[in-house]
Amino acid sequence: MTVIYAFQDSNGHWHGDPDAPLLDPADEPSCGTLTYQPVPGTPEAASPFVGQRLTVLYGITDLEAGPVTYQLDTGGRFLATWHIHTLLASPMGTAPVPSDTPRDPTPTPPCLESAFTEAGRRFVLTGTRCDNGQLIVKLTVTSERGDLQGELRGAVTADDLAPLARLLDAASRTRPAAVPPPRQGGGWTPAVSARLSARFRQEPDFTILAAEFGCSRGAIYEELARQGLIRSPESGRTTSASRPLSEAMQQRRQIHRNTHTRWSDEEERRLAQRCADGVLTPELSNEFGRTELAIESRLLKIAAVGPAADQARLNAL
After folding, report:
1. How far apart are CA 299 and CA 308, in angstroms?
2. Rounded to whole angstroms, how far apart are CA atoms 186 and 196?
3. What percent of the residues of the chain are helix, what percent strand, and what percent coil, each to the nearest 5?
4. Per-run averaged pLDDT (10 residues), the chain, 317 residues
5. Could you please report the per-residue DSSP string of 267-290?
6. Is the overall model pTM greater than 0.90, yes or no?
7. At what angle do helices 292-301 and 307-316 cross, to 10 degrees?
């Protein structure tokens, strides 16, 4: 799916993951402009990016799309990733503070905070009051190692909390019908395969289908492609193996050989270890063949520990 996965604000700062891997490494990232103008009176209208003319990058990635479609000034309507949508829509924002603007040494503490651990996962609920009286409520679910596994965030009023609590309690008591195992002897059973095709016509979201059928998004994709309900990205177009890279991409890879390619699990483990060993971002950039911005983004994503990760967190403020 084509999604907006990074943007540059009016101060020249990038947000998101500008070096995110595209599904086809030979594809070029597309670039456009977006003047961010949310509906007046909504929580999004308090975003620090309101009125800014943003430079956005978009392309076909496996990043999860958010709920909102954005109209580009340069033409085209695209969904943004959940990360980008959260950055744009959040009244709290993450826009860097200009160097000549004094920072508040005592940031506003949450007026609501609750947490507990269950089944090896940490559940944290915080609420921060805005100037307009609303609460920015954030619920996060993390593993024992601190890896983010789930997040809910939005603006509500204090009076909304009790009804929301009752709604979440009711949802937790509603158990979905048991789904028979999708795989049998290494393949899908005919009954479950037929059920998947019917559900796909009602619900095209791979993440939801994967949760319903107890398998990965990739397994859902492969079965739907086998049934001919979706078309493989490779069908009907030249593959990256047979299509030469563009001159611009070749120039980028002469500087950073792995730009716009996927991170493997082994690379992430090695990056975390090298960061823990004290190796700094410029050396990591040379070692892994990626831009310093891509290194910092990945360090934050894998919750790495070390001087380079600490600097990445400072740069993200």
Report:
1. 8
2. 17
3. 35, 25, 45
4. 86 84 74 85 79 88 81 82 82 45 48 72 78 77 69 80 76 53 60 87 81 82 84 51 66 80 87 92 91 89 88 80
5. HHHHHHHHHHTT--HHHHHHHHTS
6. no
7. 100
The confidence score (pLDDT) of residue 147 equals 64
pLDDT score for 202: 82
Q: State the Cα–Cα distance between residues 87 and 107, nearest whole angstrom.
A: 19
Q: Which residue has the tokens 């609303």?
A: 134
Cβ-based burial of 176 (10 A; exposed 0-12, middle 13-18, buried ≥19):
exposed
> Which residue reads 């956005």 in tokens?
56
Residue 137 has a pLDDT of 81
Q: Do 216 and 245 touch, CB atoms closer than 8 A? A: no
DSSP label at residue 121: E
Q: Strands, DSSP E only, in the chain?
A: 2-8, 14-16, 30-35, 53-60, 65-71, 77-81, 112-118, 121-129, 135-143, 148-156, 183-184, 187-188
Angle 8-71-11 (CA atoms, 0-180°, nearest 5)?
A: 20
The residue among 247, 21, 45, 29 whose CA lies nearest residue 131 is 45
Token code pair at residue 120: 């090896």
312 burial type by CB count under 10 A (0-12 exposed, 13-18 middle, 19+ buried): buried
The helix or strand, by DSSP H or E, that contains position 300, with its residue range, turns out to be helix 292-301
**Gap between the Cα atoms of 153 and 253, Å rounded:** 38
